[in-house]
Amino acid sequence: MMKFKYARNVLALAVVGALAGGCGGSDSDTEPPTTPEYAQKVVGSVSFNGAVAGASVCADLNFNASCDGDEPDAISDAEGAFTLEWQSLEATPDYQLVAELPQAASVAVIAPLAMTPKSAALAGAPTRAPGSAAVSPPPVTERLLARKEHGGIINPLTDIEVRRLEGADTADAIAISARLKLLLPTIFGVDAQNPYAVSAAETGTQAFTDALALLNHIEALIDGQLSEALAAEEVLFVSQTLLQSLAGEAGMSMTDWLATDPLNLRYRVSDVLKNLGYITSPIDERLMWDQDWALLAKNEAEDDGESHLFNLMTVGDKVFAELRAGSIESSLLVTVSDGVVSRTELGGEALASECWNTELSQWIGPNGADGYEVPEPITLDNRLTRVYEGTYVPVVMTVDKFSADDSEFQTLIAALPAPLKLSSISWPDTIYRLQYQQTGDVLCRSEGALSHGFDTPAAEIDSVAIIEALWRYEFDDGAYQLIDENRFIIKSEVVAGQDMTYEWSLQTALNGAPMLHIEVVEGLPPELVGLDDGEYWLLEQGSLYEVDLNRSFDSRALNWLWLSYDASFSPTLRAHLNGL
Fold this sequence. Notes:
Helices cover 27% and strands 28% of the residues. By secondary structure, the protein is α+β, with helices and mostly antiparallel strands.
């Protein structure tokens, strides 16, 4: 019985084994379970200055902001439309859209301009080596990005959103998205409910392209200096109307104006960033700040021994340079003639003077006068507007601020007269080029100025009466020669063997009194021709009083250079000039 039972069990096992083999074969032939796939489809459009045809569009599955060969792609048609289709292992895969623009579309962007070196002393800004250039953005927009939440819409606004959200954590991303949705409608004039659903036609309007050009420019100006994601949008939100008016005042289109790298735009951007609490010093080293104006105000003062200026004028082949190195005793006059440098120490004290105030009809000196209040100086951008002392005549000082290693400053210095060897000096970190414009004539008289008795009525003035009053010794000796009604020679005044010929005219001074103008018309040294404006004598109360007529001028038209700097540089410059 036991053998039979064993045999039956062996048979049962054999039958089971045979059945198992017939049903499925060996384990090596078993197929793995099937993984389900999900069909994905995105129907959208690309717009940038209108619909973009020929854009290469892809679903960027690995978020590297480019279209890789294994990612689903398509080409946009003439209307900017495209369709992407692919199979995904996930029902709702994560991706962003990338549209690589054809060159015909990308070059339509106005390139944000490269920055000059910036100040690193900004709130929260990284330290930048002095004189190093900031990183410039790409010259053109070559691709646009969009989040998948916009359902296939790709345009400059979706691209802005992606770039602003880059690197933000979840909480920050929510806040940035919410704020951006409030800013974009005002800046670009698009629908407030869904600003990203802007039509192709809207992206091609002048208002939209101007706003985008402004935003790109502002973004370039503050590139790398601030950590706030929406700083450029915040600035444009506040200042857009003003910036548009500045372009209009310049008589230029927005893109042409931006191409000039307008300095007043940089000032407005700095002002807004300061008011928003983003910065405590300017975004660009070229911009004037409070401490710059304070230094220049001190350097210009001539009555406290703290004047630090270097000015240079070229007249023909002659060069005249003046160094104000603190006290008057430290001042220096340098002349270059035929390559030869000569120096003269300047000394003496500046005489007090008073000037005629036309509006108040009185002479006003350093101590002022009843009814005269000095208008407050006005600073706007890199310009300081004041009045000539004692008057209401505006004097505008425009400042160009340089670093010593700025190429523009190096070019400026290299162009100065070679005998002065100014390019061999180690200039300070900050230099100011000053340009002055006096918008009206000013009549002044100095304390202790010369005066001569003169009883001749204005209607009877002639050359003889003038010579008798002003050249008394030559008149008594007969050492003069009358040329014609208004010209004469003083025989004792000879330069290089040539007599000095004077010409006079009778004018009406700013205060209404008769005024003689006497100038040399022949015999003046060549280097002084065009530089000497002659003498002015005011006829009042039976006397001739010497006065100064400070005519309106613009230093830019006179080949006249003014430089200023920190006072610590004056001894270096003085030693250099003395060593020539």
